[in-house]
Amino acid sequence: MPTIFVYVDQFKGAALSASWETMGAAKKLAGEMGANVTALVFGHNVEGIAKESFAYGADSATLCDDPTLADFRAQPYAALLAKVCADGKPDVVLGPNTTRGRDLFGMAAALLGASAVADGIGLALKDGAVHVTRPAYAGKLLSTVVAKSRRPQMITLRPRAFPKPEAGAGASGSVTKVEPAMKEDDIATKVTGYSVEEGRVNLADARIIVSGGRGVGGPDGFAPVRELAATLGGAVGASRAAVDAGWIPYANQVGQTGRTVSPDLYVACGISGAIQHQAGMRTSKLIVAINKDAEAPIFKLARYGIVGDLFKILPALSAEFKKRLGK
Amino acid sequence: MHVVACIKQTPDTAAKVEVKDGHVTWGDAALVVNPWDEYAVEEALRLKEKHEGKATAICMGPESAKEALKTCLAMGCDEAILISDPALKGSDSTATATVLAAAIRKMGDVDIAVFGKQAIDGDTGFTAVAVAATLGWNALTFLSKIESLDPAGKTIVVERSLEEGKQLCSSKLPAAISVVKDINEPRYPSFMGIRKAAKANVPVWSAADIGVEASQVGAAGSAVTWPEIYPLPAREGSVEILEGSPEEIAAKLADGLIAEKVI
Ligand SMILES: Cc1cc2nc3c(=O)[nH]c(=O)nc-3n(C[C@H](O)[C@H](O)[C@H](O)COP(=O)(O)OP(=O)(O)OC[C@H]3O[C@@H](n4cnc5c(N)ncnc54)[C@H](O)[C@@H]3O)c2cc1C
Ligand SMILES: Nc1ncnc2c1ncn2[C@@H]1O[C@H](COP(=O)(O)O)[C@@H](O)[C@H]1O
Q1: H or E stretch at A266
Q2: For residue A262, what are the domain limits?
Q3: In total, how many domains does chain B have?
């Protein structure tokens, strides 16, 4: 029976939502291929994630639980993934396109001589090969990529591009435990710590993003942007112009040289919609644009447009949504 | 210390990219150093300056990519090498990594190879780690800071920019690293640099020069093909402009977003 492996990306013992989206995409593909789906869970004290994977549709799980895997490090993780693939001979390996996913898949594919495709937003099975739809040229074009040779087909999927399945209750499966592929002494990199910036948000995971651009006029101009984001339970994004001006950290930048996001709702405030900004947000499901200039290119992408001063519009929006959402 | 910056030549980010007869075109827009790779070149220069080493820019690409390499020379790289051969055409990221790794191996004395986060045409972001895997090196990606580097002890301390925040790591050289935008501010080429670069001779290495077989690289050595490439479908429907007082607009928007189930 053909096999699909799903790499379950986790950070500090919590599986990412994008991992379960990937599981959902794998299940759909498995249905067409008549394949089994195995969750790959690597980390330390992550046995719970292996169990959780059954609720999202895994038929079985391969678990490597070891102190050397407590933090993601490319070398030991890739060596392990390569070994697990060499042993299990899967047809397809899927994982989320996070910083870890890219490192892992790029490195393991090179070790295995497998094929690698990054950032898929659509999967289709044709003649036994997976056809991956992915953005190229900074999201200006879409392409179909297919691995004509070399197996497994290792593919990372863009977070939020595939629906997350509902967790099913009571599902179970067998967990196979495996040993790590590298010893601590042979691993070049040591992780010494983390610093999480205050108020930092994971833009890639956000369902709603409210972004500010040069039009907010200064660091204080982000206050109404933040207020609307907080009201909607969303994250704050920014254009490069706002980041370059030093009004907000680079971590918040959306666009070609920032983060690529696909939220359900993207509200662009005082952003003109330059092609490089679009590159990072045009796959958002619904876009709202607020801009003084009715000719701003951002309106071409928007479902709803508001021509006006963001400092008048945003407070009214926050007030209205607070009312509607019972806050 | 020898630092190598791997750079790709790509169309300018403002180029209007189109598909004609199944091929990507960008009219007469300029070809530039992949914007992410400017940060790689800048970081290579800073390392070379700090540790009195040598910085070399390398690029796999057609003859025209010499221009991108000249930009690197103008910025301050000591040497630039183009790896070009008809056999390399159509390389995917694994084949590209094979080529770059072979070139780095040929140089023999490289301590650190610096990459951009991704190339803005393919947007793959696999090359740095694939080069590391091919060379048996260590990979450190998405660096937002090099805290310290000890060329004699062959150690490096870095800060990586992850989704969840910054990660601090210490590691060993040689390594392949990739950098993100907040690591530095790339310098502009100086007038002197531009003059020097204009006169510089950029050597070209062929597949045979770096010891790779034609079957390992190019379209023949690539696992993936791109059977289709097409413009993004236009976004459905046109924009609905909401009018009225801010309060009326807010009510209309709330109605719309609730009806479309996004909030
Ligand atoms: C290599 C390269 C990479 C780049 N990468 C990125 C990237 O990753 N992300 C990115 O965003 N950009 C990127 N850019 C920059 C991009 O080209 C634009 O310069 C940038 O996006 C502009 O930001 P902006 O829309 O905030 O500013 P502007 O284009 O100046 O637009 C400001 C808008 O605010 C409106 N406005 C002003 N005041 C108000 C008000 N009170 N109320 C309502 N509206 C108001 C104006 O009408 C205007 O439309 C990149 C550029 C290059 C060359
Ligand atoms: N043809 C090439 N020549 C030299 N370096 C390259 C080439 N292609 C990619 N790179 C490097 O690898 C990085 C990632 O590219 P990619 O994996 O194609 O997204 C780029 O930012 C460059 O630093």
Answers
A1: strand A265-269
A2: 208-325
A3: 1
Which of A186, A220, A247 is the last residue before a domain boundary?
A186
Q: Which two tokens stand for residue A289?
A: 């644009």
Q: Is A237 exposed, middle or buried (0-12, 13-18, 19+ CB in 10 A)?
A: buried
Does any domain span residue B53? yes
Tell me: do A177 and A258 sit in the same domain: no
**Is the same domain home to A157 and A56?**
yes
Please report which residue ranges of A180-274 form alpha helices under DSSP H.
Answer: 222-232, 240-244
A-interface mutation test, from B121, B253, B258, most A Cβ less than 10 A away: B253
Which chain A residue has its CA at the smallest distance from B235's CA?
A: A301
Range of the domain at B110: 2-216
Residue B161 to residue A138, Cβ atoms within 8 A: no
Q: Among B8, B9, B12, B13, which is best to mutate for testing ligand 1, by the most ligand atoms less than 8 A from CB? A: B13
Query: What global pTM score does this model have?
Result: 0.89
Domain tally for chain A?
2
**Given this model, what pLDDT does residue A196 score?**
75
Q: What is the CATH number of the domain that holds B84?
A: 3.40.50.620
Q: Which residues pair with A36 in a beta bridge?
A: A3
The confidence band for A229, taking pLDDT boundaries of 50, 70 and 90, is: very high
Residue A111 tokens, joined:
């070790």
Cβ of B228 under 8 Å from any chain A Cβ? Answer: yes
Q: pLDDT tier at A199 (50, 70, 90 boundaries)?
A: low
Ligand 2 atom with minimal separation from the B127 CA: 17
pLDDT in tens, B45-75: 999 999 999 999 999 999 999 999 999 999 9
The pLDDT score that the predictor gives to residue A27 is 97
Measured at the alpha carbon of residue B242, what is the angle toward residues B236 and B247, in degrees to the nearest 5?
A: 140
For residue B116, the CA-to-ligand 2 centroid distance in Å is: 7
Q: Is residue A136 part of a domain?
A: yes
pLDDT of residue A201: 65
Give me the total of CB pairs closer than 8 Å, taking one residue from chain A and one from chain B.
263
Do A163 and A230 have their domain in common? Answer: no
DSSP state at residue A166: P
Ligand lying nearest the CA atom of residue A261: 1
* Residue that terminates a domain, selected from A131, A151, A186: A186
Element (H, E) at B47: helix B35-51
Distance A274 CA to ligand 1 centre (A): 6
> How far apart are alpha carbons B90 and B122 in whole angstroms?
12
Residues A19 and A104 occupy one common structural domain: yes
Domain-embedded: residue B135: yes
Contacts of B37 (CB under 8 A, 6+ apart): B5, B6, B7, B8, B115, B116, B119
With respect to residue A68, please indicate whether it lies within any of the assigned structural domains: yes
Residue B62, ligand 2, Cβ within 6 A: no
Answer whether residue A289 is part of any domain: yes
Contact A303 B240 (CB under 8 A): yes
Has residue A203 been placed in a domain? no
Task: Specify the CATH number for the domain of residue A81.
Answer: 3.40.50.620
Residue of A nearest to B160 (CA): A194
**pLDDT tens digits for range A232-286:** 999 999 999 999 999 999 889 999 888 999 999 999 999 999 999 999 999 899 9
- Using CB distances shorter than 6 Å, the residues near ligand 1 are A 213-215, 239-242, 253, 255-258, 270-272, 274, 276-277, 280, 290-293, 296, 309-311; B 13, 35
